[in-house]
């Protein structure tokens, strides 16, 4: 760090370390060293970095699931399900198995909801624009514009993949060979993730080792405890025999990741810990893969995420009415009535004992209904992420020139993330996601742009990381989820209350109502809960 750079306040320095390592015990150790003697406990960052990044584990023991319900409990009962996304199709599949007669009304011409995989010739219709995907015709060239990865513990989704015969392959969520980039740090040069992670671990291990060796911890340690902890810290941070961090092979060697000679006898100079914890950007990105739903290993369907949606659709397609735009949801004395416009635009009506509404809240808010005041208020106030993705076809310069195979590069520019394809390694071309924006002001700015402007802005910002984006990234296509008809948002971010309960014979479900918002597993869990509510109603529970 330059001598001219202002010194960081001790309190801020300690707080930054606390965020980086995610706990107050480390802060107490630092304070005990004399770096600071009075500091409030700092929790880990609460900023969300991706769907499910900070979600707690989904409850398993008490969650309803197939097999919990009596056979034929739904015999003679009818259900109209609004929306043929993963939630709606899960509900139709399982309720049909219980004897219910189900009808799914889907506003689009295909099922899947936000499970959207784009290939050559596909059309993206937003509320104010239309784009046609110009990728080359090749089974490896596809773009998952919606859900893209599956956590290893999303057991119900993985169970359906097993049942349906959907082939899975690894998804590289955390690639230490990918980059971290901030225009305001390190001269604006991208940094290889492995080096920053190694230097952060080494600096923290050295700092805590010093505290232990000075007997500066709040609690007394036996000599055995000290020896064991110090041995652990040496391994954790790759410290030398004197518990000093002076670089490590874990961070790589000069020339790696770029064209040039490999000088394996020389270590990269370590970054100072204070340099690594002064910026929120580094703290958040280095801890990203520690999130419960982001931890390796992760999976994806071979050939595109829509392989799952198509497998669901094939099993319930006889019950789906496509291009059915719902205009009214009503209560009746004996159940429910739904009014919709069919493919020709002609109004039609369907009556059923129950209605299960899986429509995203922003789209649902515009449908006339008989909902209670509490349900309607929650629907109208429900918040969704302003997610945007922009993808390009390009020769695989990231593999050929930088040895990056899958994974994610982070930047604190608006584009937020660059995703490298996790399949088709060493093929001539690949689909690279030049921008994945989750929310916030950046999401709003990109949503408001015309598609061409999004593509131009993405190419310009991504070129600050990979200059090849300027002339090698072609056939750009974007999806701004706030402008997608019948969706109008990426994923739910509000905490549901009223919508978790039925409104007479109308039940609500969807990923936005689950503990795993933004994940297909959450959509399935929510379907199970709504099924359970209906089954219990029929059982008189």
Can you describe what's shown?
By secondary structure, the protein is an alpha/beta fold. The protein has three domains: 10-44 and 186-278, de novo design (two linked rop proteins); 78-112 and 307-382 and 495-539, FAD/NAD(P)-binding domain, CATH 3.50.50; 117-177 and 296-304 and 385-483, Polyamine Oxidase, Chain A, domain 2 (Alpha-Beta Complex), CATH 3.90.660.10. It is built from 16 helices and 23 strands. It has helices at 10-21, 24-35, 86-97, 155-164, 193-213, 223-237, 273-277, 280-286, 306-316, 361-364, 373-381, 397-402, 440-448, 451-462, 469-472, 520-539; strands spanning 78-82, 101-105, 117-118, 123-126, 129-132, 143-144, 150-151, 168-171, 179-181, 191-192, 298-301, 320-321, 325-331, 336-341, 347-352, 354-357, 368-369, 388-395, 407-411, 417-420, 429-437, 474-480, 506-508. Strands 12-2-1-16-23 form a five-stranded parallel sheet, with helices on one face. Helix 1 (10-21) packs parallel to helix 8 and helix 3 runs parallel beside helix 16 (520-539). It is globular and about 80 Å long. The relative contact order is 0.18. Mean pLDDT is 88; it is low at 1-8, 19-49 and 52-61.
């Amino acid at each position: 760090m330059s001598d001219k750079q202002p010194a960081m306040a001790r309190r801020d320095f300690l707080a930054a370390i606390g965020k980086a390592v995610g706990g107050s015990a480390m802060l107490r150790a630092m304070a005990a060293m004399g770096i600071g003697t009075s500091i409030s406990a700092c929790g880990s960052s609460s900023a969300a970095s991706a769907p499910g990044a900070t979600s707690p584990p989904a409850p398993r023991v008490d969650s309803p699931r197939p097999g919990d319900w009596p056979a034929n409990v739904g015999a003679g009962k009818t259900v109209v399900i609004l929306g043929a996304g993963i939630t709606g199709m899960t509900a139709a599949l399982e309720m049909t198995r219980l004897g219910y007669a189900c009808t799914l009304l889907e506003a689009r011409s295909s099922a899947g909801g936000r499970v959207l995989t784009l290939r050559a010739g596909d059309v993206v219709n937003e509320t104010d624009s239309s784009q046609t995907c110009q990728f080359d015709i090749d089974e490896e060239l596809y773009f998952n514009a919606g859900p893209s990865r599956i956590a290893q513990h999303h057991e119900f989704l993985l169970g359906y993949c097993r049942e349906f015969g959907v082939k899975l392959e690894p998804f590289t969520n955390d690639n230490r060979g990918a980059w971290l980039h901030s225009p305001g740090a390190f001269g604006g040069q991208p940094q290889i993730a492995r080096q920053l992670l190694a230097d952060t671990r080494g600096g923290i291990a050295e700092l805590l080792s010093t505290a232990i060796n000075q007997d500066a911890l709040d609690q007394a340690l036996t000599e055995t405890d000290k020896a064991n902890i110090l041995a652990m810290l040496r391994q954790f941070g790759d410290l030398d025999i004197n518990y000093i961090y002076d670089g490590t092979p874990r961070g790589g060697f000069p020339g790696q990741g770029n064209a040039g000679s490999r000088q394996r006898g020389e270590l990269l100079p370590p970054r100072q810990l204070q340099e690594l914890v002064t910026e929120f950007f580094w703290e958040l990105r280095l801890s990203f893969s520690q999130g419960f739903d982001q931890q390796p290993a992760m999976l994806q369907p071979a050939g595109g995420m829509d392989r799952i949606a198509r497998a669901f659709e094939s099993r319930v397609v006889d019950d789906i009415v496509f291009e059915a735009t719902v205009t009214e949801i009503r209560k009746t004395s004996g159940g429910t009535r739904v009014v919709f416009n069919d493919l020709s635009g002609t109004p039609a009506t369907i009556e059923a004992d129950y209605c299960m509404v899986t429509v995203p809240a922003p789209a649902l808010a515009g449908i006339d209904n008989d909902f209670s005041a509490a349900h309607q208020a929650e629907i109208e106030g429900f918040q969704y992420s302003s997610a945007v993705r922009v993808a390009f076809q390009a020769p695989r310069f990231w593999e050929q020139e930088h040895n990056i195979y899958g994974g994610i590069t982070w930047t604190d520019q608006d584009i937020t993330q660059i995703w490298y394809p996790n399949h088709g390694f060493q093929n001539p071309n690949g689909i690279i996601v030049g921008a994945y924006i989750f929310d916030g002001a950046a999401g709003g700015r990109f949503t408001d742009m015309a598609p061409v402007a999004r593509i131009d802005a993405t190419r310009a910002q991504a070129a600050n990381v990979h200059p090849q984006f300027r002339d090698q990234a072609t056939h750009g296509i974007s999806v701004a989820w706030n402008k997608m008809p019948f969706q109008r948002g990426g994923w739910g971010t509000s905490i549901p209350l009223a919508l978790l309960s039925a409104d007479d014979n109308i039940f609500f479900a969807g990923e936005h109502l689950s503990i795993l918002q933004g994940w297909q597993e959450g959509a399935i869990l929510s379907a199970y809960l709504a099924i359970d509510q209906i089954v219990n109603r029929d059982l008189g529970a």
